[in-house]
Amino acid sequence: MTLKSLRVFLLMLFALLPVALFAQEDFSADIVNNKDGGSQSHARIYVTKDKWRIEGLQEGRMSGAIITNLATRMSDVLMAERKMYMEFPQGQGPAGQQMWSFYHARNIDDACGDWLKLPYNQGGTCHKVGSDSVNGRSAVKYTGTNSKGETGSVWFDKKIAFPIKWEGEKGGSGELQNIKEGSQPASLFEIPSDYQKFQLPAGMSMPNMQPH
């Protein structure tokens, strides 16, 4: 994976991060993100308690992956083609420190408090709409407005305690499909032993990927 493609991959992944939090059940699922103009991006997510892995997909094949450990507050970006990885501690790298407070929202029946604590949501609003159904799964729907006045909605699955659908005012939307509950292989959340740590060249940094 080249640095250019890595940047594109990270931008896609961290567009999904504001809807992530601790899960109550292990599961895997397909992520379908609908973009403006009708195009879609696809990814695969694997979740186990306080860890998750997202794999970017291009033409059905993995184009890269990111492993996040919410307990240690560390993320590792895997570059399979180069057998290398990049590590980002809390407060550094893509998305930075802002994201972490929302990951710790454990009560899907009262998620507004955590959402409103995020810097880009301060001064906004949050409303629990109530129970709903998404692709046959029981969910709780919330609507909110951020500090810029942009509105959106998110549906939290009652069983896995994880967002399974989201819609933005500007047309962006997405959902989890093909959700399969069950234990996930521990190896998915570990850095392969034959990978080496990658260091960005002096003077080079990743793009600002904070939410907008």
3D structure, described in words:
There is one protein chain. The protein has one domain (3-197): Lipoprotein localisation LolA/LolB/LppX (outer membrane lipoprotein receptor (LolB), chain A, Clam). It starts with a helix and ends in a 15-residue tail after the last strand. The chain is globular. The chain is built from 3 helices and 12 strands. It is mainly beta. The chain is 10% helix and 42% strand. It has a 12-stranded mixed β-sheet. Mean pLDDT is 76; it is low at 1-20, 93-104 and 207-212. The chain has helices at residues 3-14, 100-103, 112-117, and strands at 27-34, 40-48, 51-58, 61-69, 74-79, 84-89, 125-134, 137-145, 151-157, 163-168, 173-181, 196-197.
Provide tags for this entry:
single chain; 212 residues
* Number of domain units: 1
What's the N-to-C terminus distance? 26 Å
User: Would you give the CATH topology?
Assistant: outer membrane lipoprotein receptor (LolB), chain A
Q: Tell me what portion of residues adopts beta-strand conformation.
A: 35-45%
Mean pLDDT: 76
Q: Percent range for helical residues?
A: 10-25%
The biggest beta sheet is recorded as: 12 strands, mixed
Give the SSE string.
HEEEEEEHHEEEEEE
Oligomer: single chain
Classification by helices and strands: mainly beta
The helix count comes to 3
Based on the structure given, which CATH architecture is correct? Clam
Q: Write out the CATH superfamily name.
A: Lipoprotein localisation LolA/LolB/LppX
Shape: globular
Extended strand count = 12
**Can you list the strand order of the major beta sheet?**
7-8-9-10-11-1-2-3-4-5-6-12
Reading off the top of the CATH hierarchy, the class is best stated as: Mainly Beta
Nearest-angstrom radius of gyration? Answer: 17 Å
Q: Low-confidence stretches at least 5 residues in length (pLDDT < 50)?
A: 1-20, 93-104, 207-212
